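Intended use. Records like the one below are meant for learning the mapping from a protein sequence to its folded structure. Do not use them to infer anything beyond what is encoded.
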Amino acid sequence: MRYTYLTTITFFLLFSSCKAQQKFNDTIKVDNRDTGVYNRINAIDFEGYINKKTVEILLSDIGFNYTRYTYGTARNSYLRFVYFIYADNLWIEAQVNDFKFLESFSKEHKWNIEEFKKEKIGAIRFVYKNHIIKSVGEKY
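Structure written out for the chain above:
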């Protein structure tokens, strides 16, 4: 009796998980206007950038111009990463773990983006429609 109950629960959870994954995959449909950037970013092997290449090289390899950027902080007034936004629903997050060119602390939250681009990447996330498509490196 106990095995039957556990088997039923396990089957239900497994089936629900598969259905949830299918639903998730169905919701990620790339809009026509985003296809080129999405495909280019998704094709990049982010592993090769971690602690080896700079943010500037990553942006160059993507080959599309971002429309805007915004800073992300870890602790109060400490820069941790930058969102490079390509479309309303499409961006990458480039995280730096060890700053060499830029002071990460700014009480006013003012940093030089060009200096940030010289830093080596510690982690990268590719986000589309609020879903993480790819994520590598030390977590935020």
